[in-house]
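User: what does the whole thing look like in 3D?
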Amino acid sequence: MSAHSADTSAPAILAEVKPAVVPRRVLVEHGRDFHWITEKICGLVEGPTPTWWWVCLGVAGFIASFTVAGLTYLVSTGVGVWGHANPVNWAWDIVNFVFWIGIGHAGTLISAILCLLRQKWRTSINRPAEAMTIFAVVCAAIFPVFHVGRIWFAVLPGYLFPFPNSNGIWQNFRSPLEWDVFAVSTYGTVSVLFWYVGLIPDLGTMRDRFTAAGNVVKARIYGFFAMGWRGSNRHWSNYEMAYLILAGIATPLVLSVHTIVSFDFAVSLIPGWHTTIFPPYFVAGAIFSGFGMVLTLMLPLRAIYRLEDLITQYHIDCMCKITLATGTMVGYAYSMEFFIAWYGANPYEGFAFINRAFGHYAWAYWIMISCNVITPQFFWFKKVRENTTLVWILCIFVNVGMWFERFVIIVTSLARDFLPSSWGYYSPSVVEIFTFFGTFGVFSFLFLLFIRFVPIMPMSEIKAVIPAADPHGSSHH
Amino acid sequence: MGRPTIKEAAMKKTYGLIAAFDTVPALYHACEKVRDAGYSQWDTFTPFPVHGLDAAMGMRRSKVPRFSLAGGITGFFTGMGFIAWLGWVEYPLVVGGKPMFSPMFAFPVAYELTILFTAFATIGGMFLLNQLPMHYHPVLKAPQFVRAMDDRFYIVIEANDPKFNPAQTRALLEQAGGKDLAELDE
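Assistant: Here's the predicted 3D structure for the full assembly of 663 residues, as C-alpha cells:
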C-alpha cells in the first residue's frame, strides 16, 4: 500500500483488537514470475512430442476402437444386442450417460462456481477440468444418441431435436427426457464456449511466440483461433465482464443439468426413483464424481509435466476437501433415502430400499456404499492428502463407486417394481461392456490431444494471481 | 533495410507511440498520468487483466451485460413461445391428461434456452464491442510486442488522438517511466 495508504487505511478498531495474521497460501510456489509461467506452459506445446504421448495415444485409440466396434454392431444389427429386456429396459446406456455427465460437472464447478466465489486456486486447474467436461459430455452423448438404434432419427428430425418433419410429429415437451435433450446440448455448447473464451488470450500468446520463432504455419493456425487478441485493456474490460457473466450463467446451468437428469427418474412413478431428494442428491454426486476424475487426471499430469509449482499441495488439499464434503453429502442422501422410505410408510418404497441393500443386487449396493461413503472419509487426514499416490487410488474408488451408484438406482428399481410377476434380473451383454469400456479410450484420446496442442493452463489467469500482478505492489489486497 | 523510397516515406504513417513498463505498479501509475493528461485515443496492452486498470485509464463499465440481458430474454421467450405454439397450434395432443400448454412443463426447456442464448449473446457482444476478430493490427507488427503477451506491459498513444504531439507525448511517456519508446507504423 504505497501510494494509496492514506485513503484506504484499515479501520481504527483493528489497532485495538490486533487480529491474528493468517498467511494466505501461495498459489504459485517458489515465487515464479510471469515469464516462467509462459515458458513452462507454452513449452509443453512447443517442445518435441514425448514418446510416452504416442504410446498413450495408441493405447487410447485401441481402447476407443471397442466403442466404435460396439456402436457399429449396434447400428447395423439393432438395440437387441444390448442386454436390456423386460422389465429392465433402461440399464447401462443411461447408467453410462449419467456417469459421464456427472464427471463433467466438476469442470464447470471449478470454472464457474469457484470463479464466482473468487476461489483463486481454481486458476491452474480450470482449463484441464473444463476440457474434461467437454470430453465427458462427448462420451455421455454417445449413449442417448445410440440407444435409439437408428441414429439418423436421433440427429435428423425425429426423436431428439424438434425439427419440422414430413410425418408432422413433434416431441413430447411434458417429458423430462425431452428436457434432458435441451439440458445436455446446452451444457455441451456452453461448456465449449466457456472453454474457448478462456483460451483466446493464451492462443494469442502462442501465436506471438510462433511468429517470433518464425513458424508461420503454427502462427497462422493459433492466430486464427486467437481472433487477433492483443491484450488491450479495452478488450480485457469486456472480456472479463463476459467471462463473469458466463460464470454466472454456467452456475445455474450446471445445477440445472443434473437436476433435469434426475428428473428422468424422479418424475416417474417407479419406487426408488420417485423421490424429491433426487435433484440435490444427483448434483452433489455429480460434483463428487467429477472431482474424483479431476484428481485422477491432474495428479499424473502434475507428475509427468513437473507442474508442482502450479498445482501445489494446496490445490490438492482443496480438491480433496471438496471430494470429502460432497462424498459426505452423498452418504447423507443415501441414509435419508432409507429414512424416508421407512417414514413414508409406502410398502413399495420400503421394499425397494430393503431390496437394494439385501436383494439380488446387494453386491452392487455395498460396492457403492464402500466406495462413495467410506473412501472419501480418508481425506480428513492431512497425511492422506499429502500422499498423492494414495489420493489417486482413492479417487479411482470414487469413480468406480459413482458408476455403481447409477447402476444401483436404475437397475434395482426396475428389476423389482410393483408386481412380482414382472420381476427380472439384468446382466449386460458383451457388446454393452465393450462399448462402455471403449468410452474411456475415447475420453483419453481426446484428453491426450488436448494436452499436446492446447496450453493446458490459463496463463493469463495464473499470472493475474501471483503477487507481482498487484497494481499496488503489495500482497495485502 | 535500405533507406525508404520517396513513395514509401510518403505512405508511411505513424500509428502511435509505444512505451514499455516492466512492472504492474509502474504501468498503473503511468496510466493515471496519461489519463490525467487528457488523452482519449490510447490503450494498454497487458498479458493478463490488471486489477483496477479500468479506473486508472478512466474507462467506463463494459456494455456486455446489455447483450446478455437481450439474449436471455430472447431465449426464455423462444422456449416458452415455441412450446406454446406446438401445444396449442401445431400439434395439439393430449398426453396423460395434461394441459396442451403449461409454463410449468415448458420451464426447463425455456430455462436452458435462456442460458444458451445468453451465452451466445455475451460472447457475440464481447467480440462486437472489441471489434474482433481483427487479425491485422499495427501493434501486432511490432517485434517487441511478443512480450506483451508474456511478461511486459505497454501503453500505446495513438497519433490520431487530438492531443497527440510527437514531442510532448514522448516526454509524457518518458516522464511516466516508459521504456524503449518507439513509433509504430500504421
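In plain terms: The mean pLDDT of chain B is 86. The CA atoms of residues 64 and 123 of chain B lie 8 Å apart.
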